[in-house]
């Protein structure tokens, strides 16, 4: 079996540990797939651009972010679910900011990694669920978590949405205050691949997916992985434990049509996708 290389990307977060473990223990190689991993600190918005530019073949991205970008012309498709449970977004402000409550944020300045990122889209969806509207001028792109910390600390922005366990160390050390939470109303992560790699190397893509699903299944089988999560991602053991037991990974490639329709509905209601916009085939049918 000839080994094929797939360039795979994702955020530097605990959700992707099953993939890193599969790379480290040779699981991909045993199926004839060489994974070249790229870390994207800028999140989903940075990854959708990398897919468009042909810099990667596949990525693990936020569900709403890749759906929005495929509708906007990204030549990629969803090839599998990845994390079936919702993402818990912490809503943060700087320690010196006078903001105190979630309800006070909707006329403030938002730090986002970039337009089209999860930190942008979730702020829009959250505002919409509360009957609020945000304007483009309220968003300041700051690239990544480091940029957000700087921006919130110097008070050039007021609000930042990011996965609550990844920001917990900065809440614990006093750099940030969490003033609310927002739970994504759908499974949080999917795997997407470019149409080019799907057309050229479908068998390699399937072998990659089988390896990911197997590793995720194994990862969920034992609580022994909890200390490993805490150590690698600088989390307190109790936080790693809470996160681990609240997270379920996909162990097959099925993607729910109902879920996709729900995401599209929310993105349209929040005016992130135009009401009459044509929706292409979102999921690879194999």
Task: Provide a brief overview of the structure.
With 286 residues, this protein is of the alpha/beta class. It contains twelve helices and ten strands.
Textual characterization of the structure:
- This protein has 286 residues and is of the alpha/beta class.
- Helices cover 41% and strands 21% of the residues.
- It has 2 domains: 4-86 and 187-269, 3-Layer(aba) Sandwich (D-Maltodextrin-Binding Protein, domain 2); 88-183, Periplasmic binding protein-like II (D-Maltodextrin-Binding Protein, domain 2, 3-Layer(aba) Sandwich).
- The chain is built from 12 helices and 10 strands.
- The protein has a 5-stranded mixed beta sheet, sandwiched between helices. A 5-stranded mixed beta sheet has the order 7-6-8-5-9, with helices on both faces.
- The model has no long low-confidence stretch (mean pLDDT 95).
State the fourth-level CATH superfamily of the largest domain.
Periplasmic binding protein-like II
- Strand content bin: 15-25%
Low-confidence stretches: none
CATH fold node name of the largest domain = D-Maltodextrin-Binding Protein, domain 2
The CATH class designation of the largest domain is Alpha Beta
Keywords:
single chain; 286 residues; alpha/beta; D-Maltodextrin-Binding Protein, domain 2; five-stranded mixed beta sheet; 10 strands; 41% helix
Layout of SSEs?
Layout: E1 4-10, H1 17-24, H2 27-30, E2 33-39, H3 43-53, E3 58-62, H4 63-71, E4 76-83, E5 88-94, E6 110-112, H5 118-129, E7 139-141, H6 145-153, E8 159-163, H7 164-172, E9 176-183, E10 189-194, H8 195-200, H9 202-219, H10 225-232, H11 237-245, H12 257-269
Parallel strand pairs: 1-2, 1-3, 6-7, 6-8
Antiparallel strand pairs: 3-10, 4-10, 5-8, 5-9
Helix pairs in contact: 1-9, 4-12, 10-11
């Amino acid at each position: 079996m000839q080994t094929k290389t797939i360039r795979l990307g994702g955020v530097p977060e605990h959700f992707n540990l099953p993939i890193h473990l599969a790379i480290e223990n040779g699981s991909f190689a045993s199926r004839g797939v060489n994974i070249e991993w790229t870390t994207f600190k800028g999140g989903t918005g940075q990854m959708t651009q990398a897919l468009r530019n042909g810099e990667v073949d596949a990525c693990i991205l936020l569900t709403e972010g890749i759906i929005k970008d495929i509708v906007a012309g990204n030549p990629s498709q969803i090839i599998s679910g990845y994390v079936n449970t919702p993402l818990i977004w912490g809503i943060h402000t700087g320690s010196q900011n006078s903001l105190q409550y979630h309800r006070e944020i909707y006329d403030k300045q938002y730090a986002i990694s970039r337009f089209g990122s999860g930190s942008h889209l979730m702020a829009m969806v959250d505002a919409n669920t509360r009957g609020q509207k945000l304007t483009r001028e309220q968003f300041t792109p700051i690239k990544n978590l480091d940029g957000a910390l700087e921006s919130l600390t110097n008070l050039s922005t007021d609000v930042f949405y990011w996965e609550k366990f990844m920001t917990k160390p900065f809440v614990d050390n006093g750099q940030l205050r969490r003033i609310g939470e927002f739970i994504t109303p759908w499974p949080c992560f999917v795997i997407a691949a470019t149409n080019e790699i799907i057309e050229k190397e479908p068998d390699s893509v399937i072998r990659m997916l089988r390896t990911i699903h197997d590793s995720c299944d194994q990862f969920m089988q034992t609580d022994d992985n909890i200390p490993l999560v805490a150590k690698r991602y600088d989390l307190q053991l109790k936080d790693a434990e809470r996160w681990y037991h609240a997270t379920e990974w996909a162990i097959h490639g099925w993607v729910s049509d109902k879920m996709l329709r729900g995401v599209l509905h929310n993105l349209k209601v929040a005016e992130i996708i135009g009401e009459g916009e044509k929706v292409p085939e979102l999921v690879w049918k194999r």
